[in-house]
Each structure stands twice: as structure tokens, then as C-alpha cells.
From TrEMBL:
<dbReference type="GO" id="GO:0016787">
    <property type="term" value="F:hydrolase activity"/>
</dbReference>
<dbReference type="GO" id="GO:0046872">
    <property type="term" value="F:metal ion binding"/>
</dbReference>
<comment type="similarity">
    <text>Belongs to the metallo-dependent hydrolases superfamily. ACMSD family.</text>
</comment>
<feature type="domain" description="Amidohydrolase-related">
    <location>
        <begin position="4"/>
        <end position="330"/>
    </location>
</feature>
<keyword id="KW-0210">Decarboxylase</keyword>
<dbReference type="InterPro" id="IPR006680">
    <property type="entry name" value="Amidohydro-rel"/>
</dbReference>
<dbReference type="Pfam" id="PF04909">
    <property type="entry name" value="Amidohydro_2"/>
</dbReference>
<dbReference type="GO" id="GO:0001760">
    <property type="term" value="F:aminocarboxymuconate-semialdehyde decarboxylase activity"/>
</dbReference>
<comment type="subunit">
    <text>Monomer.</text>
</comment>
<dbReference type="InterPro" id="IPR032466">
    <property type="entry name" value="Metal_Hydrolase"/>
</dbReference>
<keyword id="KW-0456">Lyase</keyword>
<dbReference type="GO" id="GO:0005829">
    <property type="term" value="C:cytosol"/>
</dbReference>
<keyword id="KW-0479">Metal-binding</keyword>
<dbReference type="GO" id="GO:0019748">
    <property type="term" value="P:secondary metabolic process"/>
</dbReference>
<protein>
    <recommendedName>
        <fullName>2-amino-3-carboxymuconate-6-semialdehyde decarboxylase</fullName>
        <ecNumber>4.1.1.45</ecNumber>
    </recommendedName>
</protein>
<comment type="pathway">
    <text>Secondary metabolite metabolism; quinolate metabolism.</text>
</comment>
<dbReference type="InterPro" id="IPR032465">
    <property type="entry name" value="ACMSD"/>
</dbReference>
Length: 334
């Protein structure tokens, strides 16, 4: 049985001088401490303490071996998106980051699948970047779920997703820069505990209720992180609203539950009961193992929730742990 983790992050070695291409837009860089630990920096500010697996491929593969993971899809840490920068500088930054991710994954090409990032603030540049990155060896693209106030129903982002569908490039959409931060900042990591789930729910419903899925080719392979946020739990509420309020169904010809076959979610829900509901809502063929490795809010024992969900059949468990990801990334075709 293959075990493939579709939701993991990397922060390759990037110096402060290299990060200055994003001057005024975060300047993310890595400060190593020389003892297997480091700090992600945002300009002069400390953003997050991190461990060596985040930037050292040998350490990552050793951790994968210890936890029984065969393959990881490796995507940038969301702080690195660069969406706040001028588009030309962001494109230069993405080219640098994408090359570093390729170099990182090249140390274990059978184990690490590189995902690129793009300057999503400019749809033309984003399309050019993802096409170039795919030709260079990237196996998919990692994007944030919004650019400022532009969510996935934005015409430009819809155009980018349609381009990825036509190019056959899988898309991993990750929540970031969470809403409600002014009300939750500094309290118990609430932006990550509450805001991330809300961001993902907002992204899915914006794609559905705006009619965006009607304009995007059905060939798009799109995965939303963190179990789809609160989508599965609140789907009944959304369907009820669609059936009973004209304003909800104005742009969506079908209720939200009719669109669960248009996207994937990862399994990062941490509770077998939640996973059981997620599989009932999405179908076992639309859920893939995701851990958020190597961050401490992720699943520290990869696949533990999937294995602990007694209601899954053996075939369903195998599909979630790896079979669905093989299809998502077309691994057997390669």
C-alpha cells in the first residue's frame, strides 16, 4: 500500500539578501541556528521556530522513513507566496523559490514531488509561471485561497484555475492570511484553529455559489487543505439555504452538495468521527492523506486518523492513504 502525503511544506534555504526582492512585502527568509533548528523570518521579525526537516531533504526523507510515508508532495510555506508585492518582483521571487524547491526535491526524486508557486496577483504572469514550472519538472501548483479581497470566484483566479485544467496541472489550495485576525490575534492560535477552517469553507462556497465551477473545465484537479475546513459539517446548512433563498442560488444552478465531485480535500481533521463524516460527504475517492508536515499543528503520526477510522473498508483506507493521490498527480502515467 502506497502512503502519499499531499500536504507538506518546505522552506528552502533563502537568505535575507535574496528575500529583498520582496522588500515591503514580508521578505521571508530562513535563519539557521546551526543545531538543527531555525527561525522563519519576515524581514526583521521572527515568524515561526522550525526544525531541520523544513529545509534539509535528507532529514525530511529520514523522517518519512520513520513514519512510513513513501511520497510527499512538497509545497512552499504560505508566508512565501509574495502576493503583496508588485507582480514583476513577485514573478522573480517565484522563479527563485520554484528553482529551490526543484533542487530540494531532486535530492530524492522518487520520494518528493515538487509543487510550484505563482504570482497570483497577475493572472497572465501566473499562467506563464505555472506553464514554465510544469515544463521544468514541477508536479503541481500551490496557491493561497485568496489574494487580498479576491477569492476563488474572482474572474482572474477562475481564469488561472481553468488554465491549470487545460494544462493538466494539479492545484493545491491552502488557506492563509486568515479573516477575523483583528478579533483573534494573540489568543490561543485562534486564527489557525478557527480562521483556517472558515477560509476554506469560504473558498469552496465561493467556487460553488458563484457558478465558477460551471466555467472551469471538469478536468481540473483541485485539492483544498485541512479537510475542506468546515464545509462537510455545514453542507446541510448551505443546501438548505440554496433551496430556500433566491439570493443563495442566484448564480449556482445546482445545490452545493452536487459539486462534491469537482474537488478533493485532504484528511487533516485529526478525529476518526470527523473523517467518517468527511468521507460520507465527499466520497472515499475524493479524500487524500494530508498532514501539514513538518509543522506541530499537523498530524504527527501520518495516517493515524485514517487507520483509526473503523468504518472505512480496506479499499477505502488504501485509496485515502495513497491511491487517490496517485490518480491526482498522475503518478502511474509517469
Amino acid at each position: 500500500m502506497s502512503v502519499i502525503d499531499v500536504h507538506t511544506h518546505v522552506f528552502p534555504r533563502l537568505s535575507r539578501s535574496e528575500a529583498r526582492v520582496l522588500a515591503g512585502a514580508g521578505e521571508p527568509w530562513l535563519r539557521e541556528h546551526g543545531d538543527g533548528t531555525g527561525t522563519i523570518m519576515s524581514g526583521d521579525d521572527e515568524f515561526r521556530p522550525v526544525g531541520v526537516e523544513l529545509w534539509d531533504p535528507e532529514a525530511r526523507v529520514a523522517a518519512m522513513d520513520r513514519s512510513g510515508v513513501d511520497v510527499q508532495a512538497v509545497s512552499s510555506t504560505p508566508l512565501m507566496f509574495g502576493y503583496g508585492a508588485e507582480a514583476g518582483r513577485a514573478a522573480d521571487w517565484c522563479e527563485l523559490v520554484n528553482q529551490r524547491i526543484l533542487d530540494y526535491c531532486a535530492q530524492a526524486p522518487d520520494r518528493l514531488l515538487p509543487l510550484c508557486q505563482v504570482p497570483l496577483q497577475d493572472v497572465e504572469l501566473a499562467c506563464e509561471t505555472v506553464t514554465k514550472a510544469a515544463a521544468a519538472g514541477h508536479r503541481g501548483v500551490h496557491i493561497g485561497n485568496h489574494v487580498g479581497e479576491r477569492y476563488p470566484d474572482d474572474a482572474g483566479i477562475v481564469e488561472f484555475l481553468a488554465h491549470c485544467a487545460r494544462e493538466g496541472v494539479p492545484v493545491l489550495m491552502h488557506p492563509w492570511d486568515m479573516l477575523g485576525g483583528d478579533r483573534m490575534a494573540g489568543r490561543y492560535m485562534l486564527p489557525w484553529l478557527v480562521g483556517m477552517a472558515a477560509e476554506t469553507q469560504l473558498s469552496i462556497l465561493s467556487l460553488i455559489l458563484s457558478g465558477a465551477f460551471e466555467r472551469i473545465p471538469e478536468s481540473l484537479r483541485l485539492c483544498l487543505c485541512h479537510g475542506g475546513g468546515s464545509f462537510a459539517y455545514l453542507l446541510g446548512r448551505a443546501d438548505n439555504a440554496w433551496h430556500n433563498r433566491d439570493i443563495v442560488r442566484a448564480d449556482s444552478p445546482r445545490p452545493p452538495s452536487a459539486y462534491t465531485g469537482r474537488f478533493f480535500v485532504d484528511s487533516a481533521v485529526f478525529d476518526p468521527r470527523a473523517l467518517r463524516l468527511l468521507v460520507e460527504v465527499m466520497g472515499a475517492g475524493r479524500v487524500m492523506l494530508g498532514t501539514d508536515f513538518p509543522f506541530p499543528l499537523g498530524e504527527l503520526e501520518p495516517g493515524a486518523t485514517v487507520r483509526a477510522c473503523a468504518e472505512l473498508t480496506g479499499d477505502e483506507r488504501a485509496a485515502i492513504l495513497g491511491g487517490n493521490a496517485r490518480r491526482f498527480f498522475s503518478l502511474d502515467e509517469r
